[in-house]
């Protein structure tokens, strides 16, 4: 019983002693880390605020070595987490052949990003040099790659509307000079029976490694209307008829199939059309037929087609 008691007391003393040693070590460590030290450190560089007219290509160095004065906690933090410094490239200079940032310029940038408790004693004397591509901006038209099929008895009024119809691209002259237009991505719209508007992405050709599209999508829209059909008889006019000659066509009127909205069809008359045959083409048509040419149709209709392609004729002197 007495032996057990002595063993327990001895074990407790050991624990108290170890705790005392641990606390003493921590106090010593904190005391030492609180003191000021001078040591070397290295900063990784990250480049920000690149001018819009330049494309970053390469740099002479990605880190800088510095001599610092700081407390031990600061150096311990540097050891655990390597410090990154943002280098503002809006301050880049050019001597006509090279882009660069002098040491005194990036030194000020580093000092601003360090804690007030850290003193920058010394820094690499190297000027940092950069390679950039000169960037240019060019306006190019957008070309639709949209496939459209319309529902029965429906038509597309006018052309497709693309907004914006042109976009700006930015890149090296050697690349953007090869681009004359930009296509939208392929999309198929089937059986349309109403107006539509869809956002469509733009396709960037392969090989444009350093060219940027300042607009990535466009909107394509169109007006879809239901149409009706109407047949209207139009008289045939003769052109290039020599003086003293006459010509009789068979028939002398031809039916024209018109497609348009109902309101437009109601307003149609034969005088809105000009359907001709050309006397000068007789020599090229020895079989007594002449081709019909529909040379005038009203803007209000979608399409108009003569139901006959040619007519027979006879000549007569007057």
User: So what's the CATH class of the largest domain?
Assistant: Mainly Beta
Mean pLDDT: 84
Q: Please give the CATH architecture of the largest domain.
A: Beta Complex
Helix segment tally? 5
Shape call: elongated
- Percent strand: over 45%
Based on CA atoms alone, the radius of gyration comes out at: 43 Å
Protein name: YbbR-like protein
Pfam families: YbbR (PF07949)
Secondary structure topology:
Blueprint: H1 2-33, E1 36-48, E2 54-59, E3 63-71, H2 72-80, E4 84-88, E5 93-94, E6 99-101, H3 103-113, E7 119-123, E8 128-134, E9 136-143, E10 146-150, E11 154-163, E12 166-171, H4 173-176, E13 182-183, E14 187-192, E15 196-201, E16 212-213, E17 217-226, E18 228-239, E19 245-250, E20 253-260, H5 262-266, E21 274-278, E22 289-291, E23 293-296, E24 303-306, E25 310-317
Describe the protein:
The protein is of the alpha+beta class. It folds into three domains: 31-134, RNA Polymerase Alpha Subunit, Chain A, domain 2, CATH 2.170.120; 136-226, Beta Complex (RNA Polymerase Alpha Subunit, Chain A, domain 2), CATH 2.170.120.40; 228-317, RNA Polymerase Alpha Subunit, Chain A, domain 2 (Beta Complex), CATH 2.170.120. Helix content is 19%, strand content 49%. It is built from five helices and 25 strands. A five-stranded mixed β-sheet has the order 23-21-18-20-24. A four-stranded mixed β-sheet has the order 4-1-3-7. Strands 2-8-6-5 form a four-stranded antiparallel β-sheet. Strand 5 and strand 6 form a beta hairpin. The longest helix is centred in the first third of the chain and has 32 residues, at 2-33. It is elongated, with a radius of gyration of 43 Å. It starts with a helix and ends with a strand. Residues 26-34 have low confidence and may be disordered. It holds the Pfam family YbbR. InterPro entries: c-di-AMP_regulator (IPR053154), YbbR (IPR012505). It comes from Saonia flava.
């Amino acid at each position: 019983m007495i032996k057990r008691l002595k063993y327990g007391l001895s074990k407790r003393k050991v624990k108290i002693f170890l705790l005392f040693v641990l606390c003493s070590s921590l106090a010593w460590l904190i005391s030492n880390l609180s003191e000021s030290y001078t040591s070397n450190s290295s900063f990784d560089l990250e480049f920000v605020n690149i001018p819009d007219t330049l494309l970053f290509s390469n740099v002479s160095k990605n880190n800088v070595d510095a001599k610092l004065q700081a407390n031990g906690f600061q150096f311990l933090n540097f050891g655990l987490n390597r410090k990154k410094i943002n280098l503002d490239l809006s301050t880049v200079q050019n001597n006509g052949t090279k882009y660069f940032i002098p040491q005194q310029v990036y030194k000020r940038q580093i000092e601003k990003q360090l804690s007030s408790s850290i003193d920058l004693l010394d820094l690499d004397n190297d000027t940092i040099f950069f390679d950039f591509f000169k960037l240019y901006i060019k306006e190019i038209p957008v070309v639709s790659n949209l496939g459209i099929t319309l529902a029965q008895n429906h038509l597309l009024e006018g052309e497709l509307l693309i907004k914006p119809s042109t976009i700006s691209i930015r890149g090296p002259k050697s690349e953007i000079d090869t681009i004359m237009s930009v296509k939208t991505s392929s999309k198929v719209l089937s059986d349309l029976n109403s107006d539509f508007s869809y956002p469509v992405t733009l396709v960037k050709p392969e090989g444009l490694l350093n060219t940027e599209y300042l607009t990535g999508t466009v909107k394509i829209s169109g007006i879809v209307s239901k149409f009706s059909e109407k047949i209207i008889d139009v008289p045939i006019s003769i052109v290039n008829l020599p003086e003293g000659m006459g010509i009789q066509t068979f028939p002398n009127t031809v039916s024209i199939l018109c497609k348009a909205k109902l309101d437009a069809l109601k307003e149609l008359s034969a005088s809105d059309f000009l359907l001709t045959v050309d006397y000068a083409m007789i020599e090229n048509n020895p079989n007594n037929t002449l081709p019909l040419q529909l040379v005038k149709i009203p803007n209000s209709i979608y399409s108009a087609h003569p139901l006959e392609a040619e007519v027979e004729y006879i000549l007569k002197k007057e």
